[in-house]
Amino acid sequence: MKKIIILASLFAAQAQAATLSVTDGIEFLVVDGKQVQGSFWSQTAELELTPGKHQIVVRYDKELKNGSRNTMYTTRPYLFELEMPSQDAEISLPALVVYSQAQAYFQRDPEWTLLMEDGSQRTLAFTELKGDGFAAFSDMEALVAEYNRQNGITFEQGYAVDLQQAVVKVDAGGKVEVTGDALAQLKLWYSKAKPEEKAAFQTWMKSQAQP
């Protein structure tokens, strides 16, 4: 099976990577903001990831029994902010055989599980990505980039960083406090800016550097 090496940085490359795989019917779409390229005949089923937080987007796509014939069942993309352990792990779903069984499973709150090599497991929190129109999922990188922009998520040295969580604190009473240093706050607002706003900001920055 094809493997993709994710190099977080020069230092991360020296760290011990582990294999993240998926069970039958699950396919990787985007990892840390980059589309995963499979072959014409098969999808990528394994990734080499350094331990730490990664953003993983997958979907379930499998041919299932539907009466007297077989029918492809395809879900929307599911996004995980996954803490990759230092051991091999696998994203898993229950075995689904019949089309109606898959429909019922994903119409309620589906349970995605991360199975570790040592036998332990944990349930993965997820976001189901939604789009408008027939071609909503034709450009997965762009869809994920827009999600990250809206949610203040960026990547530093190859790792997913939730800047909004890092610089915004909400107490038990619901009071919002902006925390973090000026650099963290600048990164948050830059990550949430639209392309034209980023371009305008970069122009302004260049003007500030002039004597």
Topology of this structure?
Layout: E1 3-5, E2 18-22, E3 26-31, E4 34-35, E5 46-49, E6 52-66, E7 69-74, E8 78-84, E9 89-92, H1 99-107, E10 112-116, E11 121-124, E12 127-128, H2 140-151, E13 153-156, E14 159-162, H3 163-167, E15 168-170, E16 176-178, H4 182-192, H5 195-209
Parallel strand pairs: 1-5, 2-9
Antiparallel strand pairs: 2-5, 3-4, 3-6, 6-7, 6-8, 8-12, 9-10, 10-11, 13-14, 15-16
Q: Mind explaining what this structure looks like?
A:
A hairpin with a 2-residue loop joins strand 3 (26-31) and strand 4 (34-35). Helices cover 25% and strands 36% of the residues. The strands form 4 sheets. It has a 6-stranded mixed β-sheet with strand order 1-5-2-9-10-11, with no helix packed on it. Strands 3, 4, 6, 7, 8 and 12 form a 6-stranded antiparallel β-sheet that branches. Strands 13-14 form a two-stranded antiparallel ribbon. With 211 residues, the chain is α+β, with helices and mostly antiparallel strands.
Number of helices: 5
Question: What's the count of strands?
Answer: 16
**Cα gyration radius (Å):** 20 Å
Strand order of the largest sheet: 1-5-2-9-10-11
Helix content: 10-25%
Q: Outline, from the CA principal axes?
A: globular
Order of H and E elements: EEEEEEEEEHEEEHEEHEEHH
Portion of residues in beta strands equals 35-45%
> Averaged pLDDT, please?
77
- Cα distance spanning the termini: 56 Å
Structural class, from helix and strand content?
Answer: alpha+beta
Question: Runs with pLDDT <50, length 5+?
Answer: 1-14, 163-168
**Biggest sheet features:** 6 strands, mixed
